[in-house]
Amino acid sequence: MAEFSLELNEDQLQIQKWVHDFAEQVLRPAASEWDEREETPWPIIEEAAKIGLYSWEFIANVFADPQGLTFPLACEELCWGDAGLAMAILGSTLAVSGIAGNGTPEQIAEWVPQCFGTPDKIQLGAFAVSEPDAGSDVSSLRTRAVYDAATDEWVLNGAKTWITNGGIADVHVIVAAVDPELKARGHASFVVPPGTPGLRMGQKFKKHGIRASHTAEVILEDVRVPGSCLLGGKDKLDERLARAREGKSTKVQAAMSTFEASRPLVGAQAIGIARAAYEYALDYAKERVQFGKPIIENQAIAFKLADMKMEIDAARLLVWRACWMGATRKPFLNGEGSMSKLKAGEVAVKVTEEAIQILGGYGYVREYPVERWHRDSKIYTIFEGTSEIQRLVIARAISGVHIR
Ligand SMILES: Cc1cc2nc3c(=O)[nH]c(=O)nc-3n(C[C@H](O)[C@H](O)[C@H](O)COP(=O)(O)OP(=O)(O)OC[C@H]3O[C@@H](n4cnc5c(N)ncnc54)[C@H](O)[C@@H]3O)c2cc1C
Fold first, then answer.
1. Structure pTM?
2. By the 8 A CB rule, do 315 and 321 touch?
3. 10 Å Cβ neighbour count for 17?
4. Helices 92-102 and 254-287, axial angle in degrees (round to 10)
5. Could you read off the pLDDT of 146-156 as tens digits, one per residue?
6. How many structural domains comprise the chain?
7. Are residues 231 and 322 in the same domain?
8. Which of 245, 264, 296 corresponds to the end of one domain?
9. Which residues contact ligand 1 via a Cβ below 6 A?
10. 134 and 203 both lie in a single domain
11. Is residue 1, in this structure, part of any structural domain at all?
């Protein structure tokens, strides 16, 4: 039985420092430029690939931490550097979660490396569940997957929206309805291999924040993928659908199992942004003089900073708890994964807003990074489940009541 400790071990500290150095030296100096350009920052992804940070080996390594803390540490540091660039680097890992969460060992070995490529030939992954009429309500997906027994192929048709790396990814993981009557229990995940005809990018969105990360629609028109691209395989799917049709409970819901695993990591990203804003505001408050003294000498400012620090630490503890529970396979009986993402997202929005307040006019203009951090933070109360949906998950978990 391991002793309770919040001290990071040598491996964790080493990776944390390594990612921090990359964030400080590569992401911070490039952040403003790529925010303005609003394009995929290929040179930055290449830099990350060259040092091994953008690679399947790195993801395998951080997932191997038995305490589950290495990945959230890395996420926090990357987003401390810049959340838009961090998302360009981390976006492929959502596809990895989709593959690892639902695929067979053979499928994982085949497709996960292809979500990254090599430093000479960068590849991207995308995970596509959201649709124009199915955002929070994932159960009402319209994208259909139909099996063609004659050719052992699946035929995908539909439209996905808001997809990170959508249409520019090499590997798209698509969640589609196999049996729409079964709602979420009739869903399955499919890998669409690079260059498959019929998959194309629709509109690319211009965003409020994380603008270096590509977000677009993905259109699927008679996309044919081999039977081997159904994650988990057909036997398992048929068995699951049969159980669902009999009204028996089914453990796996394709999209939900991916989000459960990734929510605490999304929380860790939000904490990175909040910490960046807090540190900046603290330094600024010590230097900015008004009425003949540094503004931090006013309780009104100092107490804001005290609250910012406390909220960041509280959010991080929830994230670490959820990551530790995930790594040690403890069930999230009280919605602990959702709690961590909910708290961290709301803290990031609040802390970055307070940082603007502490900088006054300087916080509101683009010469200073704080307004960008505020814009970047807002997505953390929206994607991977809005704050309202996280509260719903927690409320249902703690009460056992099907709250709407
Ligand atoms: C930048 C960005 C990147 C994204 N990346 C991806 C991606 O890679 N892959 C992917 O599949 N999706 C992605 N998304 C989609 C994201 O997950 C959805 O936007 C999110 O789930 C919310 O869905 P929606 O936008 O349709 O909002 P809606 O579901 O329409 O919600 C609108 C409002 O209604 C509230 N609401 C809805 N239902 C309830 C309810 N039952 N109770 C209380 N309140 C409710 C919501 O909380 C929200 O405030 C991304 C989105 C963005 C903006």
1. 0.96
2. no
3. 12
4. 150
5. 999 999 999 99
6. 3
7. no
8. 245
9. 94, 127-130, 135-136, 162-164, 207, 215, 379, 382-386, 388-389, 392
10. yes
11. no
